[in-house]
């Protein structure tokens, strides 16, 4: 009797293949072959061969000694017990596998599915692997702590940015609460709710960091009354062709003397700062993708009981972009292109989430273009993979337009990025 297997088995194969390729890449980058000083290689599986002069020199830190392969990490435990444990495990697994083969015949090793399924899996796994490679290899520009909570406007007190972020967070939390109260956990079956929740998380983290920045500013102003009001830190002289002077009131300032000027460099952001910027840039591409798909495809052509247009859905697919764009017009966060990779990973995570749910028995797809039982599925998945580039690019253009247009319209109020 042949075993009936569905499309999601090849999804699992795709995930395993991606993991296998990723592990090979890590091994190639980190492990390779252990080399001695004269470039002789250790290729023996059990014992290290001596160098050309007959001596075995120091091996790399991660090198595995031959005795580690058969001895236990527990003192007093005889290696024979490790041998017995391994043999019993092997015999038990071999017995269960033999039982399975007798019960179902050798067809348990053969899996069949429609051709478009592995193609769709490749369309998702491929960009995900490339995005992971970009994240690991790119050299990111430094992110300064003040950029997380400082407005781009010279006369604007950071307290107002704090208030705006708190207001946006509370509004989005209220809307998300209404949706979850209406649909329960099923609400997170959709990419829109994922993106909406991510934008809300950004405003939550941004509110906390803005509050920390305002608190630092108040404390430093109290300890340094000669610095004037709390707005003094915003008075930065930015001139075309000149070196930008970054002013930061932090303990332990680092001062570099040069022939031309003395610069006070800002304190670099830590983990939470980079996390905030990563979420911000992921949200930038995700809200464009969500709103374009909803207003351009779903509402005109694919509207149904789950995806119909109502007040709540309209607010979700409008306020997510409006709140984020207004924050972009106010904040000082950079928007480098390489973080498109995080946006790709975010969407791939959602697609894998859908595949896992369908592997567990779900039959309904939240979006028709995610279905895998149609010959057009590879085209849809390829289009979804490609559309991430223009969606992220649109938001990158918004950030670039902010720096170029607003600096010309308001040269004395807007701080231009260099």
From TrEMBL:
Domain of life: Eukaryota
Record keywords: Membrane, Transmembrane, Transmembrane helix
Transmembrane portions of the chain: 6-28, 80-99, 115-136, 157-177, 189-215, 278-302, 308-330, 342-367, 379-398
Protein name: Uncharacterized protein
GO CC annotation: membrane
């Amino acid at each position: 009797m042949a075993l009936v297997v569905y499309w999601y088995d090849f999804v699992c194969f795709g995930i395993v293949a991606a993991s296998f390729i990723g592990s090979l890449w890590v091994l190639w980058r980190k492990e390779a072959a252990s080399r001695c000083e004269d470039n002789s290689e250790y290729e023996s599986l059990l014992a290290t061969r001596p160098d050309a002069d007959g001596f075995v020199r120091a091996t790399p830190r991660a090198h595995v000694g031959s005795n580690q392969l058969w001895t236990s990490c527990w003192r007093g435990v005889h290696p024979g017990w490790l041998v017995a444990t391994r043999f019993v495990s092997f015999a038990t697994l071999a017995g269960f596998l033999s039982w399975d083969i007798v019960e179902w015949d050798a067809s348990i090793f053969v899996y069949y599915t429609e051709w478009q399924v592995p193609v769709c899996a490749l369309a998702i796994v491929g960009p995900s692997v490339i995005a992971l490679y970009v994240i690991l290899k790119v050299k990111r520009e430094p992110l300064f702590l003040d950029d997380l909570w400082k407005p781009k406007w010279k006369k604007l007190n950071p307290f107002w940015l704090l208030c705006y972020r708190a207001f946006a967070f509370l509004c989005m939390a209220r809307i998300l609460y209404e949706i979850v109260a209406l649909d329960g956990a099923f609400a997170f079956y959709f990419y829109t709710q994922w993106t909406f929740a991510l934008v809300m998380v950004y405003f939550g983290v941004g509110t906390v960091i803005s509050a920390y920045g305002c608190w630092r500013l108040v404390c430093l102003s109290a300890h340094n009354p000669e610095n004037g009001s709390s707005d003094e830190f915003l008075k930065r002289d930015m001139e075309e062709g000149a070196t930008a002077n970054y002013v930061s009131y932090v303990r332990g300032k680092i001062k570099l003397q040069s022939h031309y000027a003395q610069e006070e460099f800002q304190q670099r952001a830590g983990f939470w700062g980079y996390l905030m910027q990563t979420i911000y840039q992921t949200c930038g591409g995700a809200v464009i993708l969500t709103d374009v798909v909803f207003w351009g495809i779903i509402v005109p052509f694919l509207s149904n009981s789950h995806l119909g247009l109502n007040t709540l859905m309209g607010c979700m697919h409008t306020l997510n972009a409006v709140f984020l764009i207004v924050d972009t017009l106010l904040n000082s966060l950079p928007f480098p292109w390489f973080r498109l990779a995080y946006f790709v990973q975010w969407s791939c995570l959602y697609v894998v989430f859908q595949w896992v749910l369908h592997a567990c028995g779900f039959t309904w797809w939240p979006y028709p273009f995610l279905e895998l039982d149609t010959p057009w599925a590879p085209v849809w998945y390829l289009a979804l993979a490609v559309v991430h580039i223009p969606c992220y690019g649109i938001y990158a253009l918004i950030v670039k337009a902010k720096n170029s247009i607003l600096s010309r319209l308001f040269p004395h109020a807007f701080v231009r990025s260099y």
